[in-house]
Amino acid sequence: MTTEDIYAGSTETTDGKVFTVSGRDWDDIVEGLAGSDGVEERVVVNMGPQHPSTHGVLRLILEIDGETVTEARCGIGYLHTGIEKNMEFRSWVQGTTFVTRMDYLSPFFNEATYCLGVERLLDIEDDIPEKANVMRVLLMELNRLSSHLVCIATGGMEIGALTVMTIGFRERELVLDLFELITGLRMNHAFIRPGGVAQDLPVGALDEIRAFIALMKKRLPEYAALCNANPIFKGRLEGVGHLDLAGCLALGMTGPVVRSTGYPWDLRKSEPYCGYEDYDFDVQTWDTSDSYGRFRVRLNEMWESLRIIEQAADRLAGLEGAPVMVADKKVAWPSQLSIGSDGMGNSLDHIRHIMGESMEGLIHHFKLVTEGFRVPPGQAYVPVESPRGELGAHVVSDGGTRPFRTHFRDPSFTNLQATSVMSEGGQVADVIVAIASIDPVMGGVDR
Amino acid sequence: MSDEDKTTGPDQSGPEGKVPATGDPEVKTVGTRTGMFGARGTGDTSGFGGLVAPIVYPGAAERPFGGWYDEVADALEPAFTAPWSVVVHRKEITFHVRREDLVAVMKLLRDDPQLRFELCTGVSGVHYPDDTGAELHAVYHLLSMTHNRRVRVEVSVPDSDPHLPSTIATYPTNDWHEREAYDMFGLIFDGHPGLTRILMPDDWPGHPQRKDYPLGGIPVEYKGGTIPPPDERRSYS
Fold this sequence. Notes:
Chain A is built from 18 helices and 13 strands. By secondary structure, chain A is an alpha+beta fold. The longest helix of chain B has 12 residues, at 174-185. Chains A and B meet through α2, β10, β12 and β13 of A and β1, β2, β5, β6 and α4 of B.
């Protein structure tokens, strides 16, 4: 029985004999191996990379003793697409179309931190028009809502709370509809550009946003009603994935994880960017340092985001017709898009201008679109508070028209390191809860 | 934190207190840029092909650095045994540190009550092929939550000897970041408990984000025309 078993082949390794089990009844296998020498029951389980509850392609390598996890390690890299390398071969503006694809649940934050870094190097931080900043804040907060909704929805699904999943995605759809209305796309927007945003708010957008806010105020309490005091939900989340403040700082954790320890650290307050200092909102904390605390922090943050969206919408109402790009024509993208009969495309007014009216306009358009602008040599790092924590782009320029190097400090990448600390000693089922409470997005982890 | 600290920090958006170092910082030239259109060997008939311009990075600043920068520099001074320099550019301060001092500097940055940089936000590798003798840079961004300050620590090592000490003992969060810098640039962090590839497959040859590593790609045909891969296209430098 121990020899040539098609379900449990064995290999000699430095750790002794290793059996690879891929099927059949466990008791049979253990019984069959009982006679062999030096067999100890140490089981290493590969969870993923194609496991529905590992948030994309995350591979977990768990050493288990019965149902208890004794060691947990992550294998990442399955979604590595070389975005940072690719950006070095495209212009600065084209960079936004790459970075938006990194953490695909929070595209606006990727764009924002990249553009803020480029703007700092260009030394035009103070020239960004007010309306561009307000629109950035509006989009980022809408994005925070949609990202937290996905986190709560998938987190709920993983512990069997399917209704939380269905209502989470229902509301996220509303946010994506707003994105589509404002930017033309549901994701991968490349809407925030160095110097401002790609185009003005479309007609009627503010009404839609206000209607959305009113609806969300009715819908958000549903999450609280479903989960907050639900004994099963609490039973699964409370005390799971515990990580205190010292552990958080040692491991570089930021975002809801660090706020769940009771420390109100939020870059929107501590180092305001895009004019966050002008908005009235509170930093949400919880004091349990566990998965339940992180859930409550996210839930409360959605309310805060709604408050900010409301204020941003009010400010936008008073900014009709204001510019959304820097005045410097050497940086500002020349054309605006418009809606045509076949969807969003080139603005016919702009085409008429460059093709029929102004030779200089055509040259200018051509130079800026093909060559792009030069960014003075140096490096900058302007982090933003993404839904998952501190997201920063280390932008290096050699004075050329393309990024010399851009490195993203993605919070998912850093926070995922806590998997071991959060799940070792707990049950296998709790690993999933702990990881869901980190809310990693593999697109951001692997880039 | 006093109000004075608040207005002199580089990350504050108030209008005053943003003036960095006074005096002319010396410049640092790394490489040159030739021509205007980045085309090599052929193609550039514009007459601009003969242009040669140095690539000048912001150079070392002199004291006073301005604001709290001097405070941090003073507190950090005991950790230095080898020459070090400071670059202040766009309201961000960078400490250029020799690799033999790195561990002591990081430890002091974390532990000194005047510094208290509790959070390290990782290592970013940068490859400057023209920076002879210091081609590979490891850039650390640190954040002091206590004082709400950010500094950057930069270490450069030659391509021929890409070793530098690991900072995991001080900042455990750098575990994966150092693995990524090793994976992408071939920086070897001595003392790292398991310096293996993290994003690329384990048996991958080479370090993809180095400048001498090609981007790769295949020509794309479209309606009879062929477009070469991005790194072989004629482009602007």
